[in-house]
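Its record is quoted verbatim for completeness.
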Amino acid sequence: MALLTDLLNLDLSGSTEKIIAEYIWIGGSGMDLRSKARTLPGPVTDPSKLPKWNYDGSSTGQAPGEDSEVILYPQAIFKDPFRRGNNILVMCDCYTPAGEPIPTNKRNAAAKVFSNPAVAAEEPWYGIEQEYTLLQKDINWPLGWPVGGFPGPQGPYYCSIGAEKSFGRDIVDSHYKACLFAGINISGINGEWEFQVGPSVGISAGDQVWVARYILERITEIAGVVVTFDPKPIPGDWNGAGAHTNYRTVGFEVIVAAVEKLKLRHKEHIAAYGEGNERRLTGKHETADIHTFSWGVANRGASIRVGRETEQNGKGYFEDRRPASNMDPYVVTAMIADTTLLWKP
């Protein structure tokens, strides 16, 4: 008699050419990921060759019940680390039946920014540091914390090892390998927990971060743990969770000019950089105050940090430390490109 795990791990390649495509999209809250699967006649590597699909938008807060159909447009393909073989994950964005992007579709506007010739010519590179918090299921309390209690002061936990300091490493390492398998350019992990995606060019940065989040949520589902991207899930004297966004430009003078433009649009960027960010950007715990723009070399208490190596080499990247962990990477990457490359003060 086959066990459930045997059936889950069935290799279909010897019995059929058909594959399973898991279509992924962003739901009505702007943070909830949804997905459903369909069978395709054979392997596909080009998203333009995939069929469009639809779903009930009234069940995701994206359409009224009397006109509930929302259309999924496939945009990016990744290998499926759960089903493996030739099976795929498909990142989609969402449109009305008439072909108009629905209000929660932030990818469409971002794609227009990145397809602008002035932006495309610069080939903007991003590296996004996605922090998150693992919670104990049912009680929504951080993994490893005593129920109803708090850990000791910060210090021993950053990039730590040991059963008394590090919790959830099996989830983190599983996610790391699953992202590599999927074809996501995940460049590393930190022990906060955090994973880094990039360098990725243009719109692909947003696609990769969203699919990496999807894979993480699937893994925590299997592990019976909850992942939250809230920027400060538990109030207190400790760091919040961000999504520091690194942006490559050429020439130190160009970096300074770009930072000055970001300063002029600080309020607009903050408004688009994630919900609840005011609980994180307090001027403490390696953050700048949410109301004040600042930048500096090697300064983790600034809004924008320029690396010491970038200053020495006269070229490289800078780090926008303002985005919250629940930011939309389509919005943030496109806004940085728009402000630094297209906007005229």
In short: The mean pLDDT is 92. Residues 203-223 form the longest helix (21 residues). The first strand starts at residue 19 and ends at 26.
